[in-house]
Design goal:
The structure is a single chain. This protein is α/β, with parallel strands linked by helices. The protein has a single domain, classed as P-loop containing nucleotide triphosphate hydrolases (Rossmann fold). 39% of the residues lie in helices and 18% in strands. It has eight helices and seven strands, in the order αβαβαβαββααβαβα. A seven-stranded parallel sheet has the order 3-2-4-1-5-6-7, sandwiched between helices. The structure holds guanosine-5'-triphosphate (GTP) and magnesium ion.
Amino acid sequence: MHIVQMGMEHDVLRENSKIAHSNYRLLKNHGIKCVELMGSIGSGKTALIIKLAERLRAKGVRSCAVAGDVTGEDDYRRMRESGLDAVNCNTGRECHLDANMVRKVLEQIDLDSYDVIFIENVGNLVCPADFPLGADYRVVVVSTTEGDDMVRKHHDIFIHSDVAVLNKVDIADAVDVDPDVIAGDYRRLTGGLKEIYRCSVKTEQGLGGILSALDL
Ligand SMILES: Nc1nc2c(ncn2[C@@H]2O[C@H](COP(=O)(O)OP(=O)(O)OP(=O)(O)O)[C@@H](O)[C@H]2O)c(=O)[nH]1
Ligand SMILES: [Mg+2]
């Protein structure tokens, strides 16, 4: 029984991977750069997408966002109210988006109208890691309010991400968290090769560095 379950899991991941490749090719055919944001509930994914998209708009770069949530339209509405084109994607009961869901969303978007698509995954530091969606960059966003042990507890999502962001540095002192501890854990996890990007969406500190890391 256990072996059968492992086989099914392998098939699911392989199928997801195939569709993710096809999403990637579809996006490339339309000249779109795609950035996926993963991270804990409330870490600031929606807020960050809105701010990055605003900065891109000022440079004439056209963005669209996919708001991934289990239920509801809250993030979708916030994006739209900020002036960002968006599509809502409710997973129902799933704790992550998968490549097939994203494929269906991409079919609803006029891909020739955009240069960048942001995909906000469901707030979760575990499940999204295994399901690539076809993005150019996978970004993990954690925040100081989650404590200083997120990198130590969730290796996988940091390993599966191209860029890691530590948000809410503006309230690090108030929540008694030292950003240097998180930065040190990430540096060690990546063999000294990568640094976590520190930012505050609220004060807009560090946003330029994140855009550069994404080649935007
Ligand atoms: N102080 C402070 N608050 C922030 C910052 N970034 C986001 N917030 C607040 O944190 C809360 C959660 O932000 P969201 O952008 O909704 O977080 P999220 O990761 O999209 O959350 P889910 O979609 O529910 O997983 C909101 O009240 C934001 O205003 C920041 O840099 N500093
Ligand atoms: Mg959100």
